[in-house]
């Protein structure tokens, strides 16, 4: 009897396991069947299906820094909305209900912020790059003495501000605290981030007739000056190409030493070429093209010439093809997304409202809008 009971228990246990296995097998079959049905319902990719790509960056606004008249406390920023074509004459004052300051020196858009320097006021104004609402004012004075900031650039989480007292101040963009002050040459006039370094043109322009003649190179890792390159008297505007060169204009002594465009080899830290056939006043580089402003005294007119930075040869002696003439070119920039060329024109012996002219890359005028007194720099807000 005991044996029969044990046998029955074993049979029942086996039967439960068999039933469980049977149920499990059915579940597997159902799952596989469902997978096959779902797979058969999925649409195979079609070569003709449109591929959704993210929209490329686009410039939505043009900001023009107007220097104003010296000691006139009338520096301003003009905003031009590219889509609506609406011009806001003084966007900083319109938003913040106060003046920007005295003598605009540089405007720099970096990330979500805009940085504006006023040289005589010795002040850095930090704004929201889209709304232009003031975020922070940073004074550039030591014991009440103005340092006279002149130029801005950025690298990583820092901005770099050059000042005429011979320094470059490194500022954290998150906290606005000073990270370090680096000593460079006399009266640094321009800054550039290129080839993994920070480049500083030391003009010595306030030390006439004892101008400086060097470009300092700062390592953004060690935050120290690692090179000082002799380039020529009174260096000013700096730009870089994609081939390891840094371009600089040396303004000379405004007498027997003329304004020249020179090329620095970034590796050897030496001037490898000087353009001797023309006087260069200002320039910018976009892609393989340098747009160089100079004044032709024979023709008595301002001219924008084009130079191929890859071959280092002239493309054309006059970019403007429709006969447009300028009273005094005061700044030049190229929209990074449309390649439109914006030329700032100072008027009325640098005392009247200026204008900004937009040209297509065919050298023909597309439109013009009014700016403030002495428009000196153009920057673009990207979407």
Structural class computed from helices and strand pairing: mainly beta
Largest sheet: 4 strands, antiparallel
Uncertain stretches of 5 or more adjacent residues = 1-43
Span between termini: 89 Å
Mean pLDDT: 89
From the spread of the alpha carbons, the general shape counts as globular
Radius of gyration: 31 Å
Short description:
The chain is built from two helices and 30 strands.
Key words describing this protein structure:
48% strand, globular, four-stranded antiparallel beta sheet, disordered N terminus, 2 helices, single chain, 383 residues, mainly beta
Give a topology summary.
Elements: H1 2-41, E1 59-66, E2 76-81, E3 87-88, H2 91-96, E4 104-110, E5 113-118, E6 123-128, E7 134-139, E8 141-142, E9 145-146, E10 149-155, E11 158-163, E12 167-172, E13 178-183, E14 188-194, E15 197-202, E16 214-219, E17 224-230, E18 235-240, E19 245-250, E20 260-265, E21 270-275, E22 282-286, E23 289-296, E24 301-308, E25 313-316, E26 329-334, E27 341-347, E28 352-359, E29 365-373, E30 375-382
Antiparallel strand pairs: 1-2, 1-30, 2-3, 4-5, 5-6, 6-7, 8-9, 10-11, 11-12, 12-13, 14-15, 15-16, 16-17, 18-19, 19-20, 20-21, 22-23, 23-24, 24-25, 26-27, 27-28, 28-29
Description of the structure:
- This protein has two helices and 30 strands.
- It is mostly beta strands and 383 residues long.
- A hairpin with a 2-residue loop joins strand 14 and strand 15 (197-202).
- The longest helix has 40 residues, at 2-41.
- Residues 1-43 have low confidence and may be disordered.
